[in-house]
Design goal:
single chain, alpha/beta, TIM Barrel, 12-stranded mixed beta sheet, 11 helices, binds S-adenosylmethionine
Length: 329
């Protein structure tokens, strides 16, 4: 039992931190094309503030951190920040989620900062389609980064794929087939219809059974047991494959009863559920000079209010108004 055990006896040891709401891409399922991030610089937590929050959270039971965004690698000083973060005693795991566009030039610094695991988002293997989905012609940069991440020894290199009917459904098996030649963990994510995005129609979202059906031509999916650092993905492997495929099913089989996550937004709000707009303001008290024990109390209060489960369903999409880019996924 830790200070961050909630009313439903879930031990929350995982903090996902969005370090910026800015992103160099405009993925159709994530953001509107003309989206301009709203947060003025002074409203975004400084690295020092994030480190102070982390240092207050570790004694409460946080041991695992993921850095996300927006796009974390567009924020200046990110590698120095990762280094400082890795020096915080009590953290056993630090990982990063990135779109990979700027990974190549940062990869050594990120690795030497102590980050061992990395998630790279890639929804297509086709350059033109990449441009359609993201608004930018940089498939080559991302693919090169993925190969470099493997070479640099990130273990695992996870590839996040949002499965969208009529957009990349014809490629899901080709993407999964990468697990035969590379030790990648390829994770197919059900589209979550939240916030405002260019493709806001839930009819594009594919549920896990349909995704599995698209993968079936590659062979039988053999279940893999979940390990200690595993999130909610259902893990599988094709016979003879070096890597794995996984399914993240927030809609068709949500994993709320096992949720161990808290999220800190770039604007300093603590969220206990990705799919609920309820949040606790941590930035204002921090900037007013609160003590570490007051910071700890904000965590404890937030955890007490963590909902048992989210209400998002395929047909009910207006529950969450916040943008995924502001929360970090
Ligand atoms: N910029 C980084 C990236 O692209 O990985 C980190 C932030 S991004 C919001 C984190 C993850 O959320 C990405 O893997 C992205 O594909 C996923 N994502 C964004 N919008 C989503 C949605 N509506 N449904 C499901 N996943 C989504």
């Amino acid at each position: 039992m830790s200070n961050l055990t909630d009313r439903y006896n879930r031990h929350l040891n995982y903090l996902r931190i969005s370090v910026t709401d800015r992103c160099n891409l405009r993925c159709v399922y994530c953001l509107p094309r003309n989206f301009v991030p709203k947060l003025p610089h002074q409203d975004i937590l400084t690295y020092e503030e994030i480190l102070r929050i982390v240092r207050a959270a570790v004694p409460l039971g946080i041991s695992k951190i993921r850095i996300t965004g927006g796009e974390p690698l567009v924020r200046k000083g990110i590698c120095d920040f990762l280094k400082e973060l890795s020096e915080v005693k009590g953290l056993s795991d630090i990982s990063v989620t990135t779109n990979g566009v700027f990974l190549k030039e940062n990869i050594e610094s990120i690795r030497s900062a102590g980050v061992k695991r990395i998630n790279i988002s890639l929804d297509t293997l086709n350059r033109e389609k990449f441009k359609e989905i993201t608004g930018q012609d940089c498939f080559g940069n991302v693919w090169e980064s993925i190969l470099l991440a493997e070479e640099a020894g990130f273990d695992p290199v996870k590839i996040n794929v949002v499965a969208l009917r009529g957009i990349n459904d014809d490629e899901l098996a080709d993407i999964a087939a990468l697990s035969f030649s590379h030790p990648f963990h390829i994770r197919f994510i059900e589209y979550m219809p939240i916030g405002k995005a260019a493709y806001q129609h839930s009819d594009k979202g594919m549920l896990a059974p349909e995704i599995i059906d698209r993968l079936s031509r590659l062979g039988k999916l053999l279940p893999v047991a979940n390990g200690i650092n595993d999130g909610p993905a259902e893990r599988y492997r094709f016979e003879g494959a070096k890597g794995e495929v996984g399914l993240i099913r927030p809609l068709s089989r949500h994993f709320c009863c096992k949720c161990n996550r808290l999220r800190l937004t770039a604007s300093g709000q603590l969220r206990t559920c990705l799919l609920s707009d309820r949040q606790e303001d941590i930035k204002t008290p921090l900037r007013k000079g609160c003590s570490d024990s007051e910071l700890a109390d904000i965590f404890i209060k937030a955890v007490r209010l963590k909902p048992f489960e989210h209400k998002l369903t395929v047909s009910h999409s207006d529950e969450v108004s916040a943008q995924m880019s502001a929360i970090g996924g």
